Amino acid sequence: MRKTNHNKKMKASLTVEAAVLIPLALLTITGGIKIGYNLFHEAKSNAVVHEELMELDPVEIVRNNTLLEKLK
Element (H or E) spanning 49, and its range? Predict the structure, then answer.
């Protein structure tokens, strides 16, 4: 009889551990996915800003500013 009682305790123990570990694992996985998703959007917006800055011609901006100062 003791052997069956011991087996029931082991099964109950594993069930309790699984009930704790599975939600913890799922929260960790979804948290990692959320962090990756946020980093992706941040990198995407930084790439857009970088492309806009690359379209600007700094030499032309300086030339226009100096010509405006000379005209004043």
Answer: helix 2-55
